[in-house]
Amino acid sequence: MIRGKQTLPAVRPGASYEVGYGKPPVASRFAKGQSGNPKGRPRGAKSKRPALNEERLKDIILDEAYRDITVRDGGRSVTVPMAQAIVRAMAVNAAKGQHRAQRLFAEMLAATERQNKALADEWLETAITYKVEWDRELARRERLGITDLPAPLPHPDQVKIDMETGRAWIDGPATKEQVAQLEVLWARREEWLREVECLERLLEAESDEAVRAAIEKDLRRTQKTLAIMDRLLG
């Protein structure tokens, strides 16, 4: 039986350096100044430096801002996004008279309203420009007898502008897909109208109370569907 510490042969015969636990062979040891992991972290590591087109910090901020948390609202617990909880806490502190919270909340509110107004003004200007330019173009086509060009979508008559409120909206289809959907609805509407007329004739000719009740039920359901379609079609 061999007693005591066992060692492997040295790298070179006669060398004083012994190979064993904590003593790797000289040939396989890392050279001085050389990293033990020259390739660094594997691809996909979270600490990887972002590419030039990435804004990882923004993604992190947005993830945290819209992460749901549970807060107390009166006597109950509610789940809201982190951003909403922060704004609510700021508003509550402002209402309690904390000057810093009042200043921050007022600045945030003013900035939000400025941005909303800027977007509304831009949309209003776009709507007015679109309506005026297409009215001129359609008038030119009519004057020259041009009839083979496609109509604009949306049609300028469907661009509604309320100059008192500064509101602009589109009252009609704005894309070819929406036009196709409206055409389908109009076709279905004609079918439902014919169905109503048919049920009314059946009801007028029927004398059996049980059958009349069934027809009336179908008629009410069909009329309700038709009313919904009329609201969709404007």
UniProtKB/TrEMBL annotation:
Give the residue ranges for region: Disordered: 1-52
Q: Give yes or no: UniProt keyword Hydrolase.
A: no
Keyword list (alphabetical) reads: Coiled coil
- Which Pfam families does the record cross-reference, listed alphabetically? DUF5681
Q: Where is the DUF5681 domain?
A: 27-113
Say if the entry is tagged with keyword Plastid.
no
List all Basic residues biased stretches. Answer: 40-49
Q: What is this protein called?
A: DUF5681 domain-containing protein
The organism is Maritimibacter alkaliphilus HTCC2654
List the taxonomic lineage: Bacteria, Pseudomonadati, Pseudomonadota, Alphaproteobacteria, Rhodobacterales
